[in-house]
Amino acid sequence: MGTTDESAAQTGSTGLPKAPTRAEAKAARREQLLAVAKTLYARHGFHGVRLDDLGKGAGISAPAVYRHFSSKEAVLEELLVGISEYLQSGGERIVAEAAAPDSAEAAETLRRLIDFHVGFAMSEPELIRIQDRDLAALPEESRRTVRRLQRAYVSRWAEVVRAAHPGWTLETSTVRVHAVFGMMNSTPHQARRSSAEVVGVELRAAAAAALEIS
């Protein structure tokens, strides 16, 4: 619970909530545009959406969109590079928080990595659709950035898999990781036919089985 000073800082002299600053309002509008783009790009494909459509979805004119993004490609870049950075940094954090890397601890780390990625797949099916369909629409430099981040994420998983299974080669571990990602990233297709709870449970179980951790 906030202090009196903290509460006062959040309200004006009338006791009503303070109006957002210009910077806060701009940041909120930017996030709104990203949310609209995520929905529209997933539904219609990047090439099926105009800048006008993004503005209309956010309740602003097309020229006003340029105050936040230079183009609809820049919006796509923010979505796909951003989610790749989120996954890579999240994987690094989970591994860094792990104890000494013996096989038992590595298996527990894999369970945490699975929970992390399934959580992403269940909450961001639209981004998975966009990644699958529209990655090629990114500028070349951004595509390279996404690929680099993805390779780092896969490599971190593969290192943990090898620690859990010392007899496995790096190649075997990497193939297993790619197979697991394929299953977990199938959520946009499976979620339409099954409940979210069932999908989440089954994805975690299937991923653990593929990586041979109990």
In short:
This protein is mainly alpha-helical. The chain has helices spanning 4-9, 22-44, 51-58, 62-65, 72-96, 103-123, 125-134, 140-164, 170-184, 187-190, 196-210. Residues 1-24 are annotated as: Disordered.
Describe the protein's architecture and organization.
With 214 residues, the chain is mainly α. Helix content is 73%, strand content 0%. The chain has 11 helices and no strands. Helix 2 (22-44) packs across helix 5. The model is unreliable at 1-13 (pLDDT under 50). Keywords: DNA-binding. Residues 50-69 bind DNA. Residues 1-24 are annotated as: Disordered. Residues 27-87 form the HTH tetR-type domain.
Biggest sheet, open or closed, and with what strands and sense?
Answer: none
Question: End-to-end distance, in Å?
Answer: 42 Å
The percent range for helix content is: over 70%
Nearest-angstrom radius of gyration?
A: 21 Å
- What's the helix count? 11
Low-confidence stretches: 1-13
Domain HTH tetR-type: 27-87
Organism: Brevibacterium spongiae
Biased composition (Polar residues): 1-14
InterPro entries: Homeodomain-like_sf, HTH-type_TetR-like_transc_reg, HTH_TetR, KstR2_TetR_C, Tet_transcr_reg_TetR-rel_C_sf
Question: Keyphrases for this structure?
Answer:
214 residues, mainly alpha, 11 helices, elongated, disordered N terminus
Topology:
Layout: H1 4-9, H2 22-44, H3 51-58, H4 62-65, H5 72-96, H6 103-123, H7 125-134, H8 140-164, H9 170-184, H10 187-190, H11 196-210
Helix pairs in contact: 2-3, 2-5, 2-7, 5-6, 5-8, 6-8, 6-11, 8-9, 9-11
